[in-house]
Amino acid sequence: MARDERVTLLEVHQALPDEQFQSLKFLLEGQVPAGLLLPASRPELCRILLQRFPGNSLRVTAGILRQLGRLDLIQRFQLPLEEQIPEETPCEANGDTPKVRGDPISGHHPGGIPAAPMNNRRLTEKDLMQVAQRLGKEWQEVGILHLGLERSRLEQIQEENPGNPVLWNFEMLREWQRRERHEATVSQLQSCLEHARLDPGILDFLRSLQGN
């Protein structure tokens, strides 16, 4: 499966003309540091995406291709688009048992709802603020190790909100939410934070949200 993803990703990148390949790297800057993107060749960019988005590199690429208007490549290589894929937690990419996935197309029709966990409630800003209020001073450790965010972005958040630790936490969580988009659910955040050094009340709060 991993090899198929690697080969497909390289073929997609090789199918792009140089100008669109540079545009692809530009549009990825919100998710990958520019210092890694700018000098990257096509194989190097594939390697970066495979490392940073294990199991999701094709989905990330498909989202950028849609912005570039290359729906033909999405169709040719049968790339998954984010709204077509039932929830799957990237935080479980360390070999845990995957969740049951349904048919990617039937999920959009009332008559064909894919098998998915019931605790896939999307997080609201109020939810994020309540989690932010419970996060302690180790927020950067949480952001880097457990949410997969860049240290430079966390430092930028800190500079933009001087002297307000709760806002640092909140903006960090919002950054994670923007990156995950449709997959920023209660269950995913709980999975990401499960092994972090946190106030146990945070996980208790997330569990309480799943019952709502």
Automatic annotation (TrEMBL):
SUPFAM superfamilies: DEATH domain. Pfam families: Death, PYRIN. SMART domains: DEATH (SM00005), PYRIN (SM01289). Residues 4-79 form the DED domain. PROSITE patterns: DEATH_DOMAIN, DED. InterPro entries: DAPIN, DEATH-like_dom_sf, Death_dom, DED_dom. Residues 147-194 form the Death domain. One of its GO terms (biological process) is regulation of apoptotic process. This is CRADD protein. The gene is Cradd_0.
